[in-house]
Structures are given as C-alpha cells and as structure tokens.
Automatic annotation (TrEMBL):
This is DSBA oxidoreductase. It comes from the Bacteria. Pfam families: Thioredoxin_5. It comes from Sphaerochaeta globosa (strain ATCC BAA-1886 / DSM 22777 / Buddy). Gene3D superfamilies: Glutaredoxin (3.40.30.10). InterPro entries: Thioredoxin-like_sf.
Length: 286
C-alpha cells in the first residue's frame, strides 16, 4: 500500500480535470512510488438540455452549449496551460447530449483490463479536448479503447453491459456520499485512514500542504532535475505528454528553459513533437 492515496472525483470531459494532469505528473515525479491515484466517475452532464453552469456562461443546451463550452475551455486553458482545440468542437447534440457514456466507458475498461482503464480515461480526455471528437459516440469510444490496447470486441460488450452501468451508478453514489459537488475534487488519505477532501482545481502546493499535514511532515517532495532518462520513464506510463506536463514534472527555472531542453531532444529525434494550437505534445522518437 502506498503512503498516500489520492481519489480523484472526475469526469472525462471536465476542463479543470484536464488541467490537473500536469499537477499529477508533478506529484508522480516529486513523490516517486509514494502515491496511488484512483478515479471515481462523477458524471458531469446527464443531459445538456437540462444542464446549466451560469458561473461559466454555459446554459444554452444542445443548440448553443458547444460554443459556450469552447469559450470557457479557452479561458481555463489560459490558466492551467493544457492544450485545447476549439476548431470543429461539437461534443453535444440531440443525439449525444450526455457525458455519461464516457464515464461508463471507464468502468467498462476497468472490467476488461484494470491496468489499461486509466490510459483510456486519458485518451478520452485527449480526444475530447484536443481532437474535437464526439467521445460520447460508442463507435468513437471503441476506437479510443483500441488505441490503448483494449480488445475492441470485448470492450464493446462491456460497454453495453448492465455491469458497467451499475459500476457507474456506484461511482455516483460514492461521489454523493463523499459530499463532492464540483469536479475535480480529491480525497487524500494516509495509511492510517486519515483524510482530507480538496474541492475544485488545485495546484501542486495545495497537494503538498495536504500530504505534509496527513504525514506529520514526513513526506516531502524530492528535487527533480530535468532528465531525459526520467522523461522516458514518464513516457512509458504516459505515452503522450503535453508541454505543460513536462514543465511541471521537473524543476525547470522557466517555461523558456523547458522549451529549449525539449527542442534539443526533438532536434536529435529522441522525441517527436505534435503541435496543438499554441502548445504541443511530445512522445518518444524513433
């Protein structure tokens, strides 16, 4: 058992959950092998025509919510740094009004291969936020499952099963029981069962403070100098990393230093670069 368990109450298409990815990369590198990450599906949008988030200007239903959501996402991306692709975004419609299918897909993946479920969750986030795919479409979900190595036929069967639906309903009950009413939220628990719930988007310093409090100051982050070897190890687990994730994972002095460091690795073909708007992803080179 790890020293700390972080349970992330989330939804696969939540923009601030996407923005938490760099924070999690920083936690992975600065607290190596000390934290276990778990995910509970919270179901952000049951039906877009009955959904309203007036604080973020989202209330137009299937007829106009897509444009409102893109506007909100671009504003959020300015704060958390993760890439967003607004061109062609059309996630919600009368045919596909909900994010529940994406949540159920994660539970189906856990049934098929628990070791690949988190990879599918990540892939759904990428496809939704940076590729403008309609990830509530079962055909798209099956394609994404195949991308992360899940057997398409087995996954499709699980996706359609009552067991996956029931597992998602259990996650919804767990979310309600925990008192979670905003995504993301994080239940941080120590080995003795003590815990604290953080609501909303949090930075690395917020987690550091909570972890220190729960461990009486015994768990402190290590220094992590930029290292191609460590980056490759991170890419073994997360094959496609956004620039912001790399920046947060290591102790760079600035984003400019990060760009220069990555450019050297890209120029020597140790990494491949994939542009997304003003930012980019990197993956292992040939």
């Amino acid at each position: 058992m790890k020293n700390i368990i972080i349970t992330n109450f989330t939804d696969p298409v939540c923009i601030w959950c996407w923005g938490t990815e760099p924070v999690f990369r920083a936690l992975e590198t600065h607290y190596p092998d000390q934290i276990e990450f778990r995910y509970v599906m919270g179901g952000l949008v049951d039906d877009i025509d009955n959904f309203a988030d007036p604080g973020n200007g989202i209330d137009a239903g299937s007829d106009g919510a897509n444009a409102q959501i893109v506007s909100h996402w671009l504003e959020a991306a300015q704060q958390h740094g993760m890439p967003v692709k607004p061109e062609g975004f059309h996630l919600f419609s009368k045919e596909f009004p909900s994010t529940y299918p994406q949540n159920i897909a994660y539970k189906a993946a856990q049934m098929v291969d628990p070791l690949k479920a988190d990879a599918l969750l990540r892939r759904i986030r990428e496809a939704t936020l940076t590729e403008a795919k309609v990830t509530s479409d079962p055909d798209v979900l099956i394609e994404l499952a195949s991308d992360v190595g899940l057997d398409s036929a087995v996954f499709m069967s699980a996706l359609k099963s009552s067991e996956a639906q029931q597992a998602f309903q259990e996650d919804l009950r767990q979310t309600q029981k925990a008192g979670v009413d905003v995504f993301p939220s994080f239940l941080i628990r120590n080995a003795e069962g003590g815990d604290v719930l953080l609501r909303g988007y949090m930075g690395f310093a917020d987690f550091q403070q909570a972890i220190s409090s729960l461990t009486d100051g015994s768990m402190i982050p290590t220094e992590v100098a930029p290292s191609a070897t460590l980056l490759y190890t991170l890419l073994d687990k997360h094959p496609r990393l956004a620039f912001e994730e790399v920046y947060r994972a290591f102790d760079f002095t600035s984003r400019e230093q990060t760009h220069r460091w990555l450019k050297d690795l890209i120029d020597t073909r140790l990494l491949e670069k994939e542009a997304v708007g003003p930012s980019y992803f990197i993956r292992k080179g040939m």
